[in-house]
Amino acid sequence: MTDQYYFETTETESRNHPERVRARFTKRFVRNEMRRQKEIENNRTAALRLRNMITALERTVSSLNGSIDAVLEVSQVRDPSNFAYPVAARAMSVRRDNIQSTIAVLSRQLAKIDDAQTGV
């Protein structure tokens, strides 16, 4: 009898043994499923954040509208093209318009996320 050392094997395993192939497939499937679940969770979180931002910005717009109305009540000039139009009202109007365009961009991003979630 010959001595067999611990690093020697009597049989060599095939790389494509059915059990090994099944194990690799299962690992790959589980990894892809975990990635997909993580992506879904990230989309939910992003959608929630966007909805909260849009709500806060809409509140800011309504507050600015009230402030503009209050400034214009005191002022006698209501035409924005007139040089005597209140500077505060003009600045708040520009800010309100910028916030409304931001809301539009965020709404488009939210629609893309919602489409991606329903497509999954």
Summed up:
The chain has helices at residues 18-74, 87-119.
Count of beta strands: 0
**Basic shape:** rod-shaped
Q: Pairing-aware structural class of the strands and helices?
A: mainly alpha
Low-confidence stretches: none
Helix content: over 70%
Number of helices: 2
On the 0 to 100 scale, the average pLDDT is 88
**Rounded Rg:** 32 Å
Taking the alpha carbons of the first and last residues, their distance comes to 63 Å
The sequence of SSEs as H and E is: HH
* Major beta sheet summary: none
Beta content:
under 5%
Protein topology:
Elements: H1 18-74, H2 87-119
Helix pairs in contact: 1-2
Question: What would you note in describing this structure?
Answer:
With 120 residues, this protein is mostly helical. It has a domain at 47-119. The chain has helices at residues 18-74, 87-119. The radius of gyration is 32 Å and the shape is rod-shaped. The two termini are 63 Å apart.
Which descriptors apply to this entry?
mainly alpha, 120 residues, rod-shaped, 75% helix
